[in-house]
Every structure is written in structure tokens, then in C-alpha cells.
């Protein structure tokens, strides 16, 4: 779908379009050409989105139950439910379910954070290639965490958090600044190239620190591949407040992202402040990316593939995309974790590796579709 078609689809489906004055509406309509139909969402469109909401929530529930039941030792569903609601510490099956419950909740938190951050990043940058991993945000958080391990000997998630926040913020500023150089500004391809280059440079710095310290390498070895196994309730509780704040910020930006899709000038005519909105959104993105990276390590591509999947299901309205991403992204990440448990028994493949295997082909497909270079 071309850029003009996407813009037309949004205006025809968003209630914001009804608030545009006649002159502004005429200008946007002229830009849209044949797609210039300014109407509110129809009951059918809304009911279809509600249906998808119910279906995706059901899928997430099924995936969560599968995460508790499937592994090197399969547990019957009845036993899983009994272990959740009536736990018995002396029961071996209940103990297995309890250990899987921690990694499943970690998957919910990390997946929701990455999905919401990736969806918001694509809207803020109007860039379908935007993703915390591709644009170097996760690499910045990782480098900062490694620096904390190497120089200060930090070992807990609560300590990782502050380094991850700082690294995410610095990486975001550097990548956008580098991509903005030149006449065309921060185009989608330049952002992706700048993100890849910055991530490679940060990876080299990480390697330099790790090879010179065996202790740092051991602490970082498992965390760097992006895994849900081995988490604790204390680690999850440590990141929850930051995830809640970041999610609250981004869930309130749906109307802003919708108007940004029409261009900054149109957004200003609708009473929005694009610059301020982007700064606020960036704060929420940093909180979510930093929290997810501190908890589970750098997991890429989840924030890339989920928004594209959702646009195919419910359209480009960010008021729906943002909350639905918090259902689909955890389902994708937890499903990858389930596959990783059973694909190479008795060993496990970390969820971050499988997420990259799924997301890399999607990234290549999006890059090759040049007509969708901007949202």
C-alpha cells in the first residue's frame, strides 16, 4: 500500500478527521485524491476491531497456558490449573509449573514492552523499519549494562535498569542525529543504516570489555542472547513500575500518532504539538526498552513484526494498534520461548534467537517493499 493510500485510510477511519475545519479538510482531501472521504468509523469497522481484540486476547490466554504446560516435562492442563490456583509445594508437577510461571510472566512483561515500544516508534518516526533492535536502542542499553558490570560490578536487574535507561536514551539520540545529517533528513533507510552502524560499534565496545574480564563475560553470557529462563519474581517486580509508567505514557499517544501520520503541519492544525509529543513518546519508549532489556537481555524484531501484523488486521489507527500490540507481542515472544524449549531437547534455544529467526525475514521483506518506506 502506498503512502497516500495509508494516509487516506487513516483519515477515513479516524474520528479525528471529523474535527478538521473545512479548509483544512479540503487541503487534506486534495492530497488524498480519490481517497478523500472523511467519515467516522462505521459500526462494522468498530465491531470487527472488537472481534479481533477478543480473538487476540484468547490467543494470548492459550499461549500462556501452553507455556505453563509444555516443555521438557509436559504437564496436563488440569494439573496446570490446579498448580496455579491450588499450589502444592510437595507436588513435583506443581513445582515445574511454578518455575514456568515466572518465565511466562517475564515474557508477558517483556513482550508487552517491546511490542508497545516498537509500535510507538514506527508512529513517531513514521518509519515502518523502526524497532528497538534495528535502530540500536537495545544495543545502547546492552552496552550501558556491560559497562556497569565491567566497571562497577553490578549484578542485579534493579541495578541494570538505570544503566539500560541511560544507554537506551543515548543510543536513540545518537542514531537519530546521525540519520538526520544531509538534505533528506532522517529517512527510514538512513535510520536503519545508522542504527545498524551504531549497534555494530557498540557491539565492538562490548566485546572489548568482555574479553578483558572473565567475570564480566560470565555474568553477561546468558543475558546477552535474550532469554526468559532463569528470571525471578524480584527481577520482575523491579521493572514493573517503569513498565507501567512507560505503557501509560504511550497508550495516551494514539491520537497524536494518528495526526502525525498526516504530517506535522496537519497535526499542528488539529491542535497537536508534534515536537513535544515526540519527546514524551521517546520518554515512554526509553522506559519500556530499558526495562525489557534489563530484565531479559536484548531481544530484537518483536517490535518490528507485531505492528505490521496488526495493521493487516485492524488498520492503521494507533488508538487500536497500541493496546493490541500489548496482546500480540507477548503471544509471539512466549510462543518463541515454547518452541525453544522443545526444538532441541534436552537443551533449550533462547527466545531471543528464535525471535530473530522469525523477524529477520520480515525485516528484509519490509525493506524490499520500497513503496512502504514511510508511514
From TrEMBL:
<feature type="transmembrane region" description="Helical">
    <location>
        <begin position="349"/>
        <end position="367"/>
    </location>
</feature>
<dbReference type="InterPro" id="IPR037294">
    <property type="entry name" value="ABC_BtuC-like"/>
</dbReference>
<feature type="transmembrane region" description="Helical">
    <location>
        <begin position="318"/>
        <end position="343"/>
    </location>
</feature>
<keyword id="KW-0812">Transmembrane</keyword>
<feature type="transmembrane region" description="Helical">
    <location>
        <begin position="101"/>
        <end position="121"/>
    </location>
</feature>
<feature type="transmembrane region" description="Helical">
    <location>
        <begin position="50"/>
        <end position="70"/>
    </location>
</feature>
<feature type="transmembrane region" description="Helical">
    <location>
        <begin position="191"/>
        <end position="214"/>
    </location>
</feature>
<keyword id="KW-1133">Transmembrane helix</keyword>
<dbReference type="Pfam" id="PF01032">
    <property type="entry name" value="FecCD"/>
</dbReference>
<protein>
    <submittedName>
        <fullName>FecCD family ABC transporter permease</fullName>
    </submittedName>
</protein>
<keyword id="KW-1003">Cell membrane</keyword>
<keyword id="KW-0472">Membrane</keyword>
<feature type="transmembrane region" description="Helical">
    <location>
        <begin position="277"/>
        <end position="306"/>
    </location>
</feature>
<feature type="transmembrane region" description="Helical">
    <location>
        <begin position="133"/>
        <end position="153"/>
    </location>
</feature>
<feature type="transmembrane region" description="Helical">
    <location>
        <begin position="235"/>
        <end position="257"/>
    </location>
</feature>
<keyword id="KW-0813">Transport</keyword>
<dbReference type="InterPro" id="IPR000522">
    <property type="entry name" value="ABC_transptr_permease_BtuC"/>
</dbReference>
<comment type="similarity">
    <text>Belongs to the binding-protein-dependent transport system permease family. FecCD subfamily.</text>
</comment>
<feature type="transmembrane region" description="Helical">
    <location>
        <begin position="160"/>
        <end position="179"/>
    </location>
</feature>
